[in-house]
Input
Amino acid sequence: MKQQDIKVFLAIAKHKSLSAAAEALHYTQPTVSGYLSNLEQSLGVQLVKRTKGKREIELTPAGTEYLQLARRYEDLENQFALFTKTHQHGILRLAASVVSHQYIVCHVAQKLLRAVPDVEIRLSTLEIKDIGQAVEDRSFDVAITYDSPAYPRENRDFMEEIPLFRESYSILCPIDTPLPDRLLTPEELDPAFEIVHEGYGNTLIREWHDAHGFGNSKPFFTASSMLSLPTYLTDPRCWSFVLSNVALQLAAEHPGSLTVRHVSPAPADRICNALILRAYPDDTIIETLLRCVKDFLSERPHLHTLL
Output
């Protein structure tokens, strides 16, 4: 039984319709049905009567009883949020995806500590796939991540999403690459020598591959992450799409072995966002954090600020 299962059940009970609940939560109806089935299975009871032809759903006696518990749960969750807002002064729970942690957040956090020495930063690293659950659990005050999670409309009441910057993709390759040091065309890239990474499977890269005939090509190698690429980019023919900020820093960290190239058209830019819980008690820390992000971006003109 998960928090989101309970929230979906409350929406179903409120709207008396699976389709209306799905619309309110910005989910599809099958998704809402799945959450309800998961909840019923975990409890071992049927909560909703499934009657064909009826537009409004009815709760079973067990569903009516559980509704009272779910409402008490929701009220308790709101009290926890109020307690946090009242007492959590001077502490900032800052979450980040792995790449944004190493190449963005560590620099921004240092700027914040210099600007507000008394703040205590509790920094956690999350996989992008786990950010959505962290939103549901409200386990951070601010999260910086490249991909915004899908979350129900009701969550927007307690969370603000702020686009921070756009980032393009560059090509990271060995320093002895045969690729010329100029703007490349897609036709000059050999898909047989592309090294991909697990974060590679986002829609922007897939769309670029499909548009340029790379869709069915087998890559040379699949690495565990962007950060492990220096280990595998040893054959001079190999290359990999990497976020530009990461590519430049990796090339700077490995000046004798890696370099950067650019291609046009490139994959579409990726957006980095800040997810901010509205319950955070100190607006000045949030404002200072965003100023530190803006300062960081001003030092890196290859990142296109959206602030």
Notes: The radius of gyration is 23 Å. The chain is about 40% helix and 20% strand. Residues 61-87 form the longest helix (27 residues). The domain at 3-84 is CATH 1.10.10.10 (Arc Repressor Mutant, subunit A).
